[in-house]
Design brief:
The protein contains 9 helices and 13 strands. It binds coenzyme A (COA).
């Protein structure tokens, strides 16, 4: 009997066990996401787990399922990295992970971006669709044409933190200081400043197959395009990814920049609808999991 056959025989008879996802699980978690052709690196898994809470299902000691969630303030959270190994699917493990996640997150409003495969499970659990996300990516062949804005596009300074958190809160309807504070050391942040006030922010960081641009929060699409072009400019020749809301209207412009749309997912919410203030808009996500 091969090692695989022994494993499979064990897995078929053992019952699924819910445990906390720990850093020791991450090499196996990476294998699960690579098998789906999801681009996370080990560093991306470690970043996500350190920022939030992870749930795992093991069968016969083997990791077969993951689900993570990230609290945003006391009332909201994002969920993602929800994976069940293909051979273990349709046995209720996805449901088991989500029931535990919903229990841990208490009464929080939870957002997630669902693949087609996840939608029915999430709908059964009370999630409702509220939007769509367009995934754009490619090796960036040329530097995007600079987009003129009134005001200046400039680097982040430490005293910008409060202004960034405020416009992010207005745009996302959530208190995402923990996520943004974790991005400061690993991402390059740029801002649009006009009349002495921060009007827009965006950042780019190493992620997946190259770099990811986002979050991008701005009052209007011109500022968003200016920031995105500016953030991408140093990365010509690299693999660049950006996940924008369908409502942003940025898809045609991104196609022109040379970033094809390669997929889309459905934004879903369970609980109170998000109350963005309207003073700023979330144009691009940090990534599909973190929101
Ligand atoms: C989405 C995903 C996590 C669901 O995991 P899963 O373990 O298959 O989920 P469950 O078994 O709890 O439920 C899935 C379906 O199986 C059914 N099911 C549950 N137990 C079952 C059983 N014992 N026998 C047959 N079917 C069963 C459920 O009713 C559900 O059916 P439905 O989709 O027709 O409503 C999994 O398909 C996956 O990892 N997909 C790839 C990654 C992905 O897209 N993740 C979602 C990201 S947002």
């Amino acid at each position: 009997m091969t090692a695989f056959a022994v494993d499979d025989a064990m897995a078929a008879t053992a019952s699924p066990r819910l445990v906390a996802l720990t850093p020791d699980h991450l090499p196996q978690a990476l294998s699960l996401s690579l098998a789906l052709q999801w681009p996370y690196r080990l560093e991306d898994w470690a970043f996500a787990l350190a920022l939030g809470h992870g749930i795992a299902v093991e069968v016969g000691g083997r990791l077969v399922g993951t689900a993570l969630w990230w609290p945003y303030g006391d009332s909201h959270a994002s969920a993602g990295m929800i994976i069940v190994a293909p051979w273990a699917q349709r046995r209720g493990i996805g449901r088991m992970l989500m029931d535990e996640l919903l229990g841990q997150a208490g009464g929080r409003t939870i957002i997630l971006n669902s693949t087609l495969e996840g939608r029915s499970l999430y709908a059964q659990l009370g999630f409702a669709a509220y939007g769509a996300i367009h995934q754009h990516q490619a090796v960036l062949a040329t530097r995007p044409v600079t987009v003129a804005v009134s005001g200046t596009v400039r680097d982040f300074r430490a005293d910008d933190r409060a202004a960034i958190l405020a416009i992010d809160r207005a745009a996302s309807g959530m208190e995402r200081a923990n996520m943004i504070d974790a991005l400061f050391p690993i991402a390059a942040f740029r801002l649009v400043e006009r009349e002495g006030a921060v009007r827009a922010y965006g950042c780019v960081r190493p992620w997946g197959r190259g770099v990811v641009v986002g979050p991008v929060v701005a009052a209007d699409p011109e500022d968003a395009r200016a920031l995105i072009a500016d953030l991408m400019a140093p990365h010509v020749g690299r693999f660049v990814r950006i996940d924008v809301t369908a409502a942003s209207g940025l898809t045609p412009w991104l196609l022109g920049v040379g970033l094809p749309k390669v997929g889309d997912v459905t934004s879903m919410v369970r609980g109170q609808p998000l109350l963005a203030e309207g003073a700023a808009t979330l144009f691009a996500l940090s990534n599909q999991s973190l929101g």
